[in-house]
Amino acid sequence: MTAPGSVLIVGASAAGLSTAEALRRQGHRGRLTLLGAEPHLPYDRPPLSKQVLAGDWEPGRAQLRTQAQLEALDAEFVRGEPAVAFDAAAREVRTATGRVLRGDAVVIATGLTPCRLPGQRGLAGCTSCAAWTTRSPCAPT
């Protein structure tokens, strides 16, 4: 079996990032693309509902890797584009904007969708956007 030249990883958070890092550690030198629905770089969710909301951490501290570590990975991060369709035979993923991404291999590493708390209509769950919005009107990454 031949190693894939390009790998498309659907999910750009902890699972997707770990997959990309493992591929690089195992010697993959081809193109890596991570597709994520959120506009932010990979971050650690648990601290958002604890340390960040409590004001003990700045939001940037929840990032899983530094900018230098992400650059060293030599991967393209496609952020803010949710995947809406997957064609396994063609190895293609279509995003909500209509963009089509392809890889010689496709890894689905989408993780979980945060749950909403009862009585919290309109709160998006504990995503980085919701946590930062809850703490202040504008807290970009």
Question: Could you write a compact summary of the structure shown?
Answer:
This protein has 141 residues and is α/β, with parallel strands linked by helices.
How would you describe the overall organization of this protein?
Helices cover 21% and strands 21% of the residues. It contains four helices and seven strands. The strands form two sheets. A four-stranded parallel beta sheet has the order 3-2-1-7, with helices on one face. β5 and β6 form a beta hairpin. It is globular.
Question: What's the SSE blueprint?
Answer:
Layout: E1 6-10, H1 14-25, E2 31-35, H2 51-54, H3 67-72, E3 76-78, E4 83-87, E5 92-95, E6 100-102, E7 105-108, H4 128-135
Parallel strand pairs: 1-2, 1-7, 2-3
Antiparallel strand pairs: 4-5, 5-6
Keywords:
single chain; 141 residues; 4-stranded parallel sheet; disordered C terminus
Strand content: 15-25%
Oligomeric organization of the protein chains = single chain
Major sheet: 4 strands, parallel
Which H/E pattern describes the elements?
A: EHEHHEEEEEH
Low-confidence parts = 130-141
How many strands appear in the DSSP assignment?
7
List the total number of helices.
Answer: 4
Structural class: alpha/beta
Helix content: 10-25%
